[in-house]
Amino acid sequence: MFVFYADNDNDDNIGACDQQTLKDNVDAFQRIRLRPRTMVPVSRIDMTTTILGSPIASPIVVAPTAFQRMAHPEGELATARAAADRNTLMTLSSWATTSIEDVAEAAPNGLRWFQLYVYNDREMTAAVVRRAEKAGFKALALTVDAPVLGRRVR
């Protein structure tokens, strides 16, 4: 789901079934408070970190996002190049609109993971894993939370 902010009084909220998870997420985000620090030196901030042993420039990464070419003609290709340019991780969605191989070719030095849904056809799943491995993807992000798509009655 791509909802990062929701107004509880707005009928345009997108949620599945009874929308309880949407409500819980909004409630959780409303409990978060930022504590700004002032009067501290900021000329030497270092946000570099590692993720599973791979260095990245900051703890901000690209999560798997499906159907990117619906938003932009270059879709996942542009995202892969941008992530590589910023020295961060991109996780390619199983439902990408660009092939695993083309994404790897667009940013050959970028850190890439592949989001994997395990299909009923296990050989098909294994074939996708082999393609990702051959294309240089370093890890799998196994997704198990979507056995069926949510019912959206609103």
Number of strands: 5
Q: What strand order characterises the main sheet?
A: 3-4-5
| Class computed from helices, strands and strand pairing | alpha/beta
Termini separation comes to 15 Å
CA-based gyration radius: 19 Å
- Low-confidence spans: pLDDT under 50, at least 5 residues? 1-8
Strand portion: 5-15%
Rounded mean pLDDT score? 88
Main beta sheet: 3 strands, parallel
Number of helices: 4
SSE arrangement, N to C: HEEHEHEHE
Apparent shape: globular
User: Percent helix among the residues?
Assistant: 25-40%
Description:
With 154 residues, the chain is of the alpha/beta class. It has a domain at 49-143. It is 28% helix and 14% strand. The strands form 2 sheets. It has a 3-stranded parallel sheet with strand order 3-4-5. A two-stranded antiparallel sheet has the order 1-2. β3, α3 (100-106) and β4 form a beta-alpha-beta unit. α2 (75-85) crosses α3 (100-106). The longest helix is centred in the last third of the chain and has 13 residues, at 122-134. It starts with 19 loop residues before the first helix and ends in an 11-residue tail after the last strand.
